[in-house]
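tokens incoming
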């Protein structure tokens, strides 16, 4: 684990009190038992969705949205109808995936890969060294560095905006709008999307090693 080395400053996120913290529109709290029943039903449907996703083809050809899955199990077939349903639906999906159930992939989220691989505990990272510490630590494990640990690998391109990426069977080519950046080699590129989706631009954080090297850094 990266954090075993970096010792990132983090805080455990405790969501156990969600059902006792749902407020009414005009003030006061909803009855905890009432909210808990709603939460339990959501958990039940989520578990059923996970079992359904496990039966689907790994290629994703059978994938459906979370909303479609909910309709299959007769849970909020038209979306959340009450304020409590809306609050719990937001907590369960929009908050976690930044998109509503109608646009969320079932196979990619049930189970969530992060939780499946690393456990369900959530930690909020608030380290003063910044996110770049994580990027440099991982990238430095397979890119060339100097004696001080600085990455000097020419394949690493920072603060460059890629406007176009083209593919063929032997290589990948990436270029910026002005033609100042032109990369063509057998590599897997790792990009961090910045700005609004409408901009359709990506800032290159790292160009990983050859295609034969399947180590893949995701930011």
């Amino acid at each position: 684990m990266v954090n075993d080395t970096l010792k990132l400053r983090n805080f455990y996120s405790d969501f156990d009190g969600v059902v006792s913290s749902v407020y009414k529109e005009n003030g006061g709290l909803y009855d905890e038992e009432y909210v808990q029943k709603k939460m339990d039903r959501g958990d039940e449907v989520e578990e059923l969705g996970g079992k359904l996703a496990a039966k689907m083809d790994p290629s994703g050809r059978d994938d459906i949205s979370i909303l479609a899955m909910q309709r299959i199990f007769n849970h909020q077939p038209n979306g959340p109808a009450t304020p409590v349903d809306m609050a719990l639906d937001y907590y369960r999906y929009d908050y976690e995936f930044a998109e509503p159930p109608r646009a969320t992939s079932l196979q990619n989220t049930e189970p969530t890969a992060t939780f499946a691989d690393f456990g369900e505990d959530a930690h909020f990272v608030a380290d003063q060294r910044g996110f770049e510490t994580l990027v440099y630590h991982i990238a430095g494990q397979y890119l060339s560095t100097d004696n001080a640990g600085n990455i000097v690998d020419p394949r690493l391109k920072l603060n460059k905006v890629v406007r176009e990426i083209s593919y063929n069977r032997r290589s990948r080519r990436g270029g910026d709008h002005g033609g100042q950046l032109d990369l063509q080699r057998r590599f897997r590129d790792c990009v961090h999307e910045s700005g609004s989706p409408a901009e359709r631009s990506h800032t290159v954080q790292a160009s990983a090693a050859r295609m034969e090297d399947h180590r893949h850094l995701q930011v």
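note: Residues 148-210 form one domain.
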